[in-house]
Amino acid sequence: MRRLGGSYDALIESLHAAQEAFGYLDDEAMLFISDYLGVPRSRVFAVATFYSYFTLKPQGEHTCVVCTGTACYINGAGAIRKRIEQELGIKSGETTADNRVSTLTARCVGACSIAPVIVVDGELVGKLSPDEVVQLLMALPKGADQ
Ligand code: FES
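A: This is the predicted complex of the input protein with FE2/S2 (inorganic) cluster.
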């Protein structure tokens, strides 16, 4: 946040930095950002809950963001989400019971040419079928194997 200069305009960047550092945005982080930037707490919370990229809950060992922007939607994002729900038993915003995989949705991650796109642990992956997405998620290493 020091790098961002503590300006009001730095709110989204600060939320990104906090989530990247801690994996999610808890009350303590949001209060700190509010105080540091001089932004009302209600504004910080509103921004953090408006953008689907941000999460207020701890995430599993791996995260899978399914892009549901227009290009991805047209190319099968809905089928991918449905298949993840069937195989992993979790909806967007949830984490598997073994804490291995969390799934989220986002609106256009900027890679429409390879739609449908998922982002697994920060890496863009495109043009996968729903079955291939599930295979990829099931093959992610567990805990100490990473
Ligand atoms: S709509 Fe999914 S990357 Fe643009």
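The CA atoms of residues 98 and 129 lie 25 Å apart. The pocket of FE2/S2 (inorganic) cluster is lined by residues 67, 69-72, 108-112, 115, 117 (CB under 6 Å).
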